[in-house]
Every structure is written in structure tokens, then in C-alpha cells.
Fold these 2 entries.
Entry 1:
Amino acid sequence: MTYPLFVLVNLPKYSNLSGPLTYSHDKILPAGALVRVPLGKREVLGIVWHQTSGLNQVKSSEKSIPTDSTESTTPPYSALNIKPITSEINGIDPLNKQWLDLIDFAATYYQRSLGEMAIQALAPQLRDLDSTQIARRLKKNIRKTDSKSAAASDAISNSEHKSSLELNLTKEQEQTLTEIEAFPGPFLLWGSTGSGKTEIYLRYVASVLKTEINSQILVMVPEINLTPQLEDRFKRRFASLLKNNAGQEIVSMHSGMTAAQRLQAWLATHSGQARIILGTRMSIFASIPNLKLIIVDEEHDPSYKQQEGARYSARDLAVYRGKQLGIKVILGSATPSLESWHHAQKDPQGVGTARYQLLKMPSRIGHASMPKVHLIDLNQQPRGTVFSAQLLEAITLRVQRDEQVLVLLNRRGYAPVLHCQDCGWKSECMHCSAYRVFHKIDRTLRCHHCGIVERVPQFCPQCGNADIAPLGKGTEQMEELLGSLLSGVRQSSGEHLNILRIDADSTRLKGELNHQLAKVHSGEVNILIGTQMIAKGHDFRKITLVAALYPDTALFSSDFRAPERLFSLLLQAAGRAGRDATLANASTSEMWIQTQYPGHPLFQALIEYDYQSFAKQQLIERAQAHLPPFSFQALIRAEAKTQEEAQLFLNTAKESSVHILKGIRGKYSGSKASWLQFEPALFPAIAMTVQRVANIERAQMLIECDSRLMLQEFLRHWQVELQNLQGQFKGVTRWAIDVDPLAI
Ligand code: ADP
Ligand code: ZN
Ligand code: ZN
């Protein structure tokens, strides 16, 4: 007898309106089971879906058949045109209902196909290996586990490392822990940099591991490659948890791992063996059967939002997952995203939604204070000043005392543009509407958008002039300049200064970043120059001076989130200074900002480290301008051979909106749902800021709506229009919807 099987596969151009595909099999498999199925000429991975048909109708498994019973409500099925599955994948438990629901929610919310969402959420090797290969891998994993003693069960109870227990929590930390224990959350832990947030995570993780048998915990960080320290801290803290087992109790999940490592971590997590999962945004989709706690560190960080394919927000999904499972979620930050902040306010004037519980830890550990902020007005400086005399003097003083200095400049390379003084030629990229950046180190011009690399021409390609010069400044040039400006300065030992640059270029090789960070931690580096990479999260102990060189461009960006991001970046950077209160000069640590707009409210708030009033001001502006979190947005981007075609495609699609809205209201006629009164506003299509990348023209259209539900419903229907329309616009190569876009 054969039965039909609904299976999710990742089809190219798989419309979000098409559901799972139907295959046949000689028995019924439970939803969540992994199978291999034929697809065209290929054989691919599939996930058995609930055995009721249709996408978005399967909201709960109540309707699905009892899969472990042979008395199925589905009639025996004679396959006509339906292909049988190739094989079952044995040895891996089916993904559970909560996981399937998470995928269903994410696919619906982010307007992607279920199949794409589901398959991409798995470890890549699960889809790349066939069932025999997977079986072999499983066997190998089991052998590994067996070879070490597996008496882990009571290791948990004394899993906390001794030295950490000697550390007394501060009053604020104790209060915070008590509240986390007592309330259901979700929590927004708003704590200064260095207030001991990580210590809270460690303690609460220990407590959950102790009280909940077999519990698993997900800890997310924005970029795990940048924070090997956190991994270390967890591994040290829970050392005895590791000791007794096969080394699978704490696993990482991030894109820096090999496919084999990722599969191993995925299997350890899915099987329940991994108790602590440390991961970047992708880990939100891990199958974690006994998940009991989710922590999202630096919750404001934009890298929680996936910027291609299914553009999900891992932070928002963490909150969803927490609610779905009835478990606690802790979002932590010194500068929460304004969305989260808004959700943590309950203000009598009706501002805020009180959806999150706010926990405050304003003080830094050991009474270390935040560095004092000095604003240097560049208008008062001689023209062309790069490092003001005052700043140079302050830096000199610090390094002479063997304290460390961090210089932040958010632009890598030597100079953003190369330029001919004779004819005005600039190093434009021939494929993109952007300049190629001059990298002096290997004398190349690199386009940071399409990646094309070329040797720097010796003569101007346009007029032959030999006098081509760099315009503007990047990290490479700062490194060089600072080296020469401070060439006479010595460390206390009389040795020359060590200046180290850390950015995407200096850390391209695997392991290089960790290697360089280790140099900073060991104290061997005097001055660290870098991009935002070095501003985030690192627990540098000897830095007492931080300088931000040209932060001004963000003040006038067309993206309404730019000020929020700049404030957070500068505050994070400042947080790198004076972290060790036992250090002699920690209390006199400094943050220097060189700007042409010292009077700007953002800098004025920063001087006081007054996130609260900055956030309040920003939220007032957002409310007035009707921007998120007071409205909901989606962005649709289209790529085409010409800009006109990309825009015409979007604008034509826009015309159908009236008719779609009418359809929605018709469909729900008789319903009194309040969201039906809202109407999405579609703005005219415009070229994207970098409108051409690798010879492809890019346009976008913003959609705004006061109701999330209406926006969702609208997008779902509008997709069909867009799909149909694409057939008429042959030049349109791609289009995609970005729900809750972060970059506009
Ligand atoms: P955050 O995550 O808020 O930046 P951390 O948890 O990293 O702060 O704490 C900053 C530093 O203070 C760390 O080196 C940590 O070990 C130390 N620390 C944390 N809590 C305490 C405490 N209660 N007593 C002493 N030191 C602490
Ligand atoms: Zn020229
Ligand atoms: Zn380019």
C-alpha cells in the first residue's frame, strides 16, 4: 500500500504560495522526518510536512493525522503521477512540532516559501549528503561519544567553576537575577558596558541547567567570530560540564565553522546532547528539543537581521520562540534598539507597550566610571587636521604609561577614492555606482561592492598624468599617519610603539582575528586602530583612551536609523575604555570625538551617556514622522538591466494595490477585525543608494502600514501580482521583499 506524503523541498523560485510537494511512500512518516526525494533530475533533502494539505492552513497539528498510528484518517492511496520518495534518513529524530511551527511562522512572516525556510534552517551537510553518507556520519559521531566516558548527569549540579563563585554579585546584579527568576519575561536587560551582564547570563544559565533536567540553552551573540572571549568564558565556567562528556555539551553555531563542524553541532543540539548553544543569528533555527532559555546579547546589533535570502530577524524570532515555548528570553544591551526600548516602556502617557520587562544595571563593576567624553570641534582646527594636537597629546600620555589606546574609524583601506588632480578622474568602479577604494598595502584598487580587484594604475587612465593622489582617509592611512606622528614616542621601557590595525582586510585569513586580538589582550599592542569590528563587545582590560575620528556622515544619512546606530557604536566604543577598575588610571579614562558638529544633540547626549534621553528624543521624532516602532515597514527591491525597468516594474506592481486591498476587505467582509480599516501606503520606486552593483541596476519601494496584520495580509497577496508581473518584465532578474527592513 502506498500513502501520500507532503514534503518540503527547497525549490528554486519556489513561490511562497505553493505548498509542500506530494510524494508517495509505503508507510506514513511523522511530520518532521527527513527524507531524500527526487526533484527533476536531482535528488534532494525533504522534510515531511503535516499531512494536511496547503500552506498557511496548517497552523496547528491538531488537524494532522496521528502519524504513529496505522489507523490513518488518510485513505490508502494509489499513486498515479506521484513519485515515491528515494529514501528515509534514519537515525535522526523527526524535527518536532515546535520547530515546524517556528519555520511556518518565519516563512509566513518574512514572506518566503516554507520549503526554502525549512531546508536552509538546517545544517548544510544535511542537504548535501545522501542518506548513506549521513548514516556514516552518525555512526562516527556515536563512536566519538562512546569513546569518552558519558557520565554527565550529575556533573551539571557542580558545573560552575570555582573561581566564579568567589565573585560576589553586586547589588544590581543580585536584584536583576532575582527578577529574572521571579518573572516570566521577556526581559530587556539594559546595562552599561561592563556592568556585568555576561555574569548575569552565566549565573542564570547555571541556575537553569541545575533546576531543569536536560535543559538546553541558546545564547546568541551578533558575531561569534568577534567574541571568542564569550565562548571561552562559557567553556571555563562550565568546565566540569564538559569534562565528563564527549565535548558536545557546549557547541557553537556560526558561519565560520566548516560544514562538518556545523553538522556535528547541529546533531548534538538536535539530539539534546548539547546543553549550551552559542551562536550567531542562524542558531535561532537550530532544532533544540529541550530549549528552556534564550539569551540575545547585544540585541540592538544589526547583524541579527539576515540581509539576503530570507531576511529574518533572529532577535525577533527569539522573542517569538520564547513565547511559543513559554520560556524566558533575555535581551541584553547597553544601547537597546529603539524597538525593544519602546516595548520595555510603560509610561502613563501611553508611550511604550510594556511588552518586555525592563531590568536596569546602570553601574559599571567596581565603580569604574565611563570614560569622560571630549568633543573636538574640527571647525576650530587648522584645515585638514586629522589628529588634533590635543588628541595627540592625550594619546602620547597614555602610551607612555603603557596604557592602551583604541582609534575608531569606520572606513577600511587607505583612501576611499583615488583621484587625478589634472583631469579630475576618480577611481570609479566600472561595474558599480561606487568608487574603488585605494589599498596601499598591496597597491590595489578594490571595489567593496562587487569585489573587483585591480592594480593601481601608475598613470591616470584618462590623461596619462602621473600625479594621481588619494582622497579621504581609511584605516591603513591612519595607521601610517599615527606611526609617523608618534615616531618619537616610546613605551615606558623605552621601546617603540606597537600600532596594530584590525579590520576586514587585516583579518581575512582564518584565525588571524583571534591572533591579533590576543596581542591586544596580552598588552603587547599600544595603539589599536580599526573599524567597528573592534568597538563591539571585547573585554579589553588596558584601554584607557578611545578616539572616534570621523563619525559625522551618519548624522545626515537618509536612513532614519543612522543616528541610533551611531550613538550605539560610539557608546560601545567608549565602553571599551576603563573596564578594569583596578587599573591605576581607569578612573580617568577618556573618549575623544572629533566632529564638525559638536553641538549636535546626539553628541550632547553622549557626553552624559544619556541613552535614555537620546532614546526618548528619537522616539518622539519617530512618532511624529510615523516611523517604526510606530508603524510597520516592508521594502521591496528589484534588480534589472536598467534602472527604468526596475522602477517601472515596482511602480506597475503598485498599481494593483487598490484592487488587492479591495480583495482583502471582500474576503473578510462581515468580520469586525479592526486591522481591516488600515491601509498600506506604497511609496514611489526609487533607485537604491548604491544603485548599480556588478552591472545590475537596483531599485526599491517602501511600504508602510499602521497595522502589522494588514501589512502581512497585503504582502501575501501582492506577491502573486509581482510574480505574474515579472513575466512581463523580462529585464527584471530578481525581486525580494524585506519585512521590517533595517537599512533603508
Ligand atoms: P558586560 O557583559 O556588561 O560588559 P561583564 O559581565 O563582561 O560585563 O563584566 C565586566 C567585567 O567585570 C568582567 O571582567 C567580569 O568578570 C567582571 N565582573 C562581573 N561581575 C562581577 C562582580 N560581581 N564582581 C567582580 N567582577 C565582576
Ligand atoms: Zn587625469
Ligand atoms: Zn564594483
Note: The chain has five domains: 3-96+104-122, 132-361, 368-412+474-623, 414-472, 632-739.
Entry 2:
Amino acid sequence: MEVVPTAPEVATQKTAPGGVDRGEGVQQRFDIVVIGGGPGGYATALYASSAGLSVAVVELDKVGGTCLHRGCVPAKEFLETAAVHRTVTRSGEFGITMGTDGGGPTLDFSVSQKRKQQVVEQLFMGLTGLLKGKGVTVFSGSGTLLPDHRVRIVGNDGSSTEITGTDVVLAAGSVPRTIPGFDIDGTIVMTSDEFLSLEALPESVAVIGGGAIGCEFASLLSDLGSTVTVFEALPAILNGCDDDVVRTVARSFRKRGIDVKVDARLQGHTPDPSGKGTVVSYEDGEKLAVDAVVVSVGRRPRTEGLLAQGTGVAVDDREFVVTDETMRTGADGVWAVGDVVATPQLAHVGFAEAIVVVKSILGEPVVPVAYERVPWAIYCHPEVAFAGLTEAAAREAGYDVVVKKDPFGGNSRARIIGDTEGMVKVVAERRPDGATGRILGVHMVGPWVTEQLGAGYLAVNWEATADEVAQFIQPHPSLSESFGETVLALTGRGLHLA
Ligand code: NAI
């Protein structure tokens, strides 16, 4: 059984009251045992150790989880490659030319892959050091919760050990879902796991699922020269986003040659006998030949082997661990956070849930996560970021709403950087006296909006009114002025916006 990385003095110095250190200097009892070292798990460990609790993390692969190794971080690194490619392609507009041959930029994707891996490794080393510095013991292996807060760890070498937590936190994360007829072979039919390890980009790709992952992959593949077709089962891509945002992304995709097929009914695929590519069948006999298929139809909780008999932890019919609003499972002293719970599958939601759990364990007052107001960020081009109710959801909830939209075309900074696609849209409540009241939702699509959402998120979660937020000054010229201007317009007197 490998125990990484910790020093014996660190492993034993914070033993819980009544805790024991059984054998070989490796602590066996902790205040908290966390199963899973992804964002939900490592945030639990870091926050709990900051509060002086002794913590063990059981991780079967590498701390950092899907987000760091197979998800958010690598995908965003590749999207940055796409952004650099777009910038270089358009450099002529700024009077900058590359050479005398007049050709566009060429891409060596293996270099991008190497750079992505370096970014991931640097962050992995940083996280490993952080956990070590805070005295968190990391056990390498697969953890199973047994009754009485015991956790069995089976190492990759087959060895087995048991540790105990006064509390146990389940943070085993999720894995990509698949669909019938599209078995993952890792080279032609892939999930995000395999896609993010590619050394060369396929020339033509079918992306199945037009959600967050599908749109990010479609966007970067198209920007880097692949021919892309998105198959989405619903009537529109980006389910859950505001209609104006969806329309903006769909229009941009169309302009860039990404073929989005909505209401798509896929039937299966027939690999080319040469071993190169496959033919996807859809609708009634329609066919599309592609080099690769990326399946991005959602993620399911990783609960296989997580729970032994008799733990008292309940899972629902989709295998998600059932918790109350403070992430408490059906078993006393057992909690669950992150993608293993049926809450938004976002790393930062895992962070927030981790804090709720640790505060609850410490007996401190907690504010449960307000899931309907968490920030969302999708890093396709154009980027999407939002918090709170969409216009349609606000109307459905019975609000009399007032809406303002500020297109980035009128924003000086957007003009300067030459990226004017998109808008800021703010949905607010209309009070009975006709004045604009509380801000219910902020929806952004366009340049760097994932970095601009902060003010909108704060407004929605502070339950601030348009009048209150309109008092805040935005720097000029900046992309964030569009949010300021939209809110100002909601007060009835915009500077540029009616
Ligand atoms: P998703 O749930 O966001 O989207 C999956 C899409 O696939 C849906 O639109 C669904 O209608 C469609 N679909 C399902 N079955 C289909 C079929 N048979 N044929 C065609 N379409 C089908 O899931 P996704 O994109 O895989 O992402 C997984 C999770 O990771 C999500 O919860 C997402 O929010 C999160 N995520 C968040 C990111 C971010 O915040 N930037 C980035 C990537 C993922």
C-alpha cells in the first residue's frame, strides 16, 4: 500500500481525539476520510485541514481528479490553443503579417498536447504540495465505505488496508456517459477522456451531444481546422442557457461552418474496414462519414465499488448519492460532495459543497449552496457565462420581468480587440409600481465573459436591485462596461443603451 505524499510526523500530529496510530507510523484514524481527490475531495481536505482537522484522502489515480487531468483544465488549455490560432489567423487585420508566403498559421497539435500536459503537471505538483503542506495524508488506491465509518483501500498492487474517519466524505466524482451503438474504442469513438489525450486532430468529427463539453470541443476543433457536425437530441444546443445566448452561439457556429443537427436521432455507426474513420447513421437512413466521433452526452456518478453493504447510504435510480441540503447522506457522519451527488457537475460547486460539509462537521452555521444561482461558465467561442434565472425561467416562475441586452458591438474594448460577437443580458423583476427591482439573472455571451461574470453573480446572489448595482463604476474602456451599461439601462436611464 503506497501512501503519498506525507511525512510521518505530519501523518500523526493531528490525530483526532481518541484516535490511534496503528503500525508502521501510518495513521489509521482521522477526523475526516475523503474518498476521491478531485475538486470536491481536495477542497474538503484543504478546508478541513485549514480548520485544524486531521484528514486522509483516498485517491485511485491522481489528486486533481477529472477537472485537472481529464476535464476542465486540459479542455481550456486546448481552447486557448484555438484562441491563439484565431488571433494569428486574423493578425492581418491589425497590420501584422507573418511572412512573405501569405499563408495562414499551421498547427502541430502534438506541441499543444505537450503544453497542455505541462500545465496539468504544474498544477498537479502545486496541489500535491499544498496537500502535503497542510498535513493531509493521501492514500493511493480505491476506497470503499464499510459500516462504522471504516474505509477499505485496495491499492493498485492489490494490497488492502483499512482506515477510519470520525466523518467520511464521499467525493468519487463521475465518468462520461455513453450511448448504445457507440461503444468507446478510444481511437475512433471517444469520450472527453480519450479526446484530451490525442496527439493529432481528426480532420472530420461527429460530436454527439451539444451540451457544455460538446460545444467546447466543437468550437476548438472547428477553430483548429476540423470539419465538425454536432448531433443534439434536444431542439437546441446548450440546454439550460438563456435563449438569446443559445441563438448567439448557434449563429457563430453556423458562420464558422459547424453543422449543428438538432432533434437528432442517431442510429449507430459502421467503422470503415480500413480502420480509418466510420460512418454515422442518423434519422432515416442518413449517413455521415467522419474520422472520429466524440460522445459528450453527460456524465454519470462513479459509484461502482464505493459502498459496501450496510453503510446506510442511499443512492437514487441514476446512482447518485442521496443527500440533504447540507450534503449529509442517510448515514450519520457520512457526507457526499461533487459529481457523485445530483447537483450541477461543476468543480466550483464541489468546492462550495466541501465548505458546507466541513462547517457542518465543525458545528458552525452553514448556508446551503443555492444551486439555482451558481455561476456557469462554458468556454466555447464565443464564451458563455451566467448566474440566476433565464428570461424564460423567470417568466415561468411567475415574475413580471424587465430585460435589457447590451450587444458587445457597442463596447469600445470589444471593438479594440476585434471581438464583438455576443451580448450581456440582464433579467430583473418589475415591481408593482413599475420600477425595476431585484436582478434575477445575468447572462453573458462573448469575449472573456467567464472572467466578467463575477459582478453579475454577486448581484444575483446578493439579491441586489438594478438601482443598487447601477451605482458601481466600471473601468473604461473595458468589456465589463457592458454589464454596467445594461444595469444602468434597467434603471430607465442608460448612457448608451435605451
Ligand atoms: P450535458 O448534460 O451538458 O450535455 C449533454 C447533451 O447531450 C445534452 O444536450 C443532451 O440533450 C445531449 N444528448 C444526450 N443523449 C444524446 C443522444 N443520444 N444523441 C444526441 N444528443 C444527446 O453534458 P456534457 O456536455 O457531457 O457535460 C457533462 C457535465 O460536465 C455537465 O454537467 C456540464 O455542465 C459539465 N461541464 C461543465 C463545463 C463548464 O462549466 N465549462 C465544461 C464541461 C462540462
Note: The first strand starts at residue 3 and ends at 4.
